[in-house]
Structure formats: structure tokens, C-alpha cells
Write a structure and sequence with these properties.
- This protein is of the alpha+beta class.
- The protein has one domain (31-327): Sandwich (Jelly Rolls), CATH 2.60.120.
- Helix content is 37%, strand content 12%.
- The protein has helices spanning 25-34, 45-60, 72-78, 81-91, 111-119, 122-126, 130-135, 144-148, 178-195, 217-221, 279-294, 306-313, 322-327, and strands at residues 36-40, 96-103, 156-161, 173-174, 226-227, 234-239, 244-245, 257-264.
- The strands form 2 sheets. The chain has a 5-stranded antiparallel beta sheet with strand order 1-6-3-8-2. The chain has a 3-stranded antiparallel beta sheet with strand order 5-4-7, with no helix packed on it.
- Helix 2 (45-60) crosses helix 3 (72-78).
- The longest helix is centred in the middle third of the chain and has 18 residues, at 178-195.
- It is globular.
- The chain starts with 24 loop residues before the first helix and ends with a helix.
Length: 330
């Protein structure tokens, strides 16, 4: 990933608002060490109730609307300043933007996927749990230097819960600290390729990951992930470079939540066009334009203007080996 240099005069924009600090020191350290932390958003009960009702409308498909962004209760929720404040603090930037947003899966809809995973031969071949090996992934490749940079060259995810999400209700599984080991691996592969583009990179064979330059997936698949259980009104704030996975629900009540991903100003989003997902950038264009139409004037600055979006797309540089560049995720 890349960041943009400062303006010609080397000065930050004077009009940017000062950052706030919704996460305390212990929570920030947990994010640095683990790659994920739970945060009480302290939203009003009225807003949570209306957001849950919006979730129910979307789940039933009886909204009479084409886009979730036409639901004003949902728009009011994602417009809450606390999300921007968290993103500013974690991404080390006084200007951040929404990348993607939507409804989180219920967990109940993963039952069939889990059954298929349990029938495959990975446990016999690798001695690992099938569901974790089948669904573990990252959303973006972030090197050690990317993660430690200011602004942080990262895509930050915030998943927030409108009902209690205990482990058995499909709480997301994460492999705490995996962003650090992966960051070191991506850094090494990037440096080796730059030093000698014609030199082959190692190929590790394991569940699903066998491209040149990828890490050994068997090591990660054999470890025990953590269920990020959370009470209603809490958010799971996590690095999208952290290994994580959806999970099946053992409950008849679905988990109810929405998600928003964020990027700091000056950080490239051009890598989103890889991994056969070139349409994602078109989705960001459309979503940002819609957000600017439906958000209140004092909040629409978190949705990228067209010129800002194209500037962040254009920051992409060819810094990855071809096999990793094409995938842009594990």
C-alpha cells in the first residue's frame, strides 16, 4: 500500500478538525498487539433500537427500497461521529473516509458452508479444524512498514452489533497477532522481489494458499482463533490485514450488525481492483456519491468526493510480486 506525500508547502490543512481519542491506552495497545479490540460505542438506546429495526427490515427484504442507503435510520447510525473518531485515532490521521459499508451476515446463513468444510479432507491431511481453514482470510496485504506508518497504510474495519453476539451466535473468529507475522512476510516478499524481480519466491503448499510468495497457510490454520464475542452496542475494531473468518451460528437468533471500513486520506485504495474484484472501486464510487446525497451536511465529509476518490485510486504503485499483486489478499 502507499501514502501520498504532503502538499508542496509541507503543511497540513489548517482547516482539519482536531482528533479525539475514543479508545483508551489499553484499547489502543490491544489493537497494536492483537490487531483487534472491542469498543463500547456508547450510542443511545433509541438509535440502537432504530438501527436494529432497520437491520430487520433489510433482512426481511420488505423495505421497498433499492439500497440500504435509502434507509434513514441506517444512515443516521453510520453517520455517528464515534465511528469517524475511532478511525482517525487508529489510522493516525485527522481526515478519514468511508470505503465500504453494509449489513453483516447472520451466521445462520453459514451452516451449509460449515457442513461442506467439515466434509473435506483438510483435517486428515493437516490436522486442522475445517471451518477455520476454509474461511480464514485477510482483506488487504499490509507490510510491517505500512502498519507502523503515519497515517497508517491500512484499511480499518468496524463491525458493530445491534444484539448480543456470544460465541455461539456466530461471533467472528480472529487470529490475534497474525497481522504482525503476515506483515513481516509481505515485507520480506516485497523486498526480495524489488531486489531481484527475476528470482522465484517460495511456494508453500497448504489449505487454499499455494501461489508464489504466499505464507505457509498450514501454520495459521492449525492455530485456535478467538471468538470476538460482544454485547449489544459494542463494535469490533480490527485491521483488515488480520486473519479473520466468518462463523456459523449455533443459535436460532441471528447476529445483527452492520460494518464500515475506513481509509486515511493520502492512502492508496488502488489495490482494490485486484483479486478479480475490479468492480469494488466502482462500488466505492457509487456508494460515496450516494452517501454525500443522504448524509446530513455536517457529516458528509466522511464520504469521498469524486476528485478525492480518484486521487486515492491513482496512488497505487507496482510494488508487489505479480502473484501477490493479482490477488491482493490471501
Amino acid at each position: 500500500m502507499q501514502t501520498e506525500s504532503q502538499s508542496a508547502n509541507g503543511q497540513a490543512e489548517a482547516t482539519r478538525p482536531a482528533m479525539t481519542a475514543p479508545l483508551d491506552a489499553a484499547q489502543m495497545q490491544a489493537f497494536e498487539d492483537d490487531g483487534a479490540v472491542l469498543v463500547d460505542l456508547r450510542l443511545s438506546l433509541d438509535l440502537l433500537d432504530r438501527a436494529e429495526t432497520a437491520w430487520n427490515r433489510q433482512a426481511k427484504g420488505d423495505t421497498g427500497q433499492g439500497s440500504i442507503l435509502e434507509d434513514q435510520d441506517y444512515v443516521e447510525l453510520i453517520s455517528a461521529p464515534v465511528f469517524e473518531e475511532i478511525a482517525k485515532q487508529v489510522l493516525r490521521s485527522d481526515k478519514v473516509f468511508i470505503l465500504e459499508t453494509g449489513r453483516a451476515g447472520t451466521g445462520i446463513d453459514r451452516a451449509e458452508t460449515n457442513e461442506i468444510a467439515q466434509r473435506n479432507d483438510w483435517p486428515e491431511k493437516h490436522g486442522i479444524r475445517s471451518e477455520w481453514a476454509n474461511s480464514m482470510h485477510t482483506d488487504v496485504q499490509v507490510t510491517t512498514e505500512d502498519f507502523e506508518a503515519t497515517p497508517r497504510r491500512e484499511h480499518l474495519a468496524i463491525w458493530f452489533w445491534l444484539n448480543d453476539v456470544p460465541a455461539e451466535r456466530a461471533a467472528m473468529r480472529v487470529l490475534k497477532g497474525s497481522h504482525k507475522r503476515l506483515g513481516a512476510h509481505w515485507q520480506e516478499m516485497q523486498q526480495r522481489w524489488k531486489a531481484n524481480p527475476n528470482s522465484p519466491l517460495p511456494v508453500r503448499h497448504g489449505p487454499r494458499w499455494e501461489a508464489e510468495g504466499e505464507p505457509d497457510a498450514r501454520w495459521f490454520a492449525a492455530l485456535e482463533p478467538t471468538a470476538m464475542a460482544a454485547p449489544r452496542g459494542y463494535a469490533q475494531v480490527f485491521s483488515q490485514s488480520l486473519l479473520h473468518a466468518g462463523w456459523h451460528s449455533e443459535d436460532t437468533e441471528p447476529r445483527k450488525g452492520f460494518h464500515i471500513s475506513w481509509v486515511a486520506d493520502g492512502v492508496s485504495i488502488g489495490g482494490m481492483r485486484f483479486n478479480d474484484q475490479s468492480g469494488r472501486i466502482d462500488g466505492v464510487r457509487q456508494r460515496s456519491a450516494e452517501l454525500r446525497q443522504v448524509m446530513a451536511p455536517q457529516r458528509r465529509h466522511v464520504a469521498m468526493e469524486h476528485s478525492t476518490l480518484e486521487r486515492l485510486v491513482g496512488l497505487w504503485k507496482e510494488e508487489w510480486p505479480p502473484t501477490l499483486r493479482e490477488r491482493f489478499r490471501l
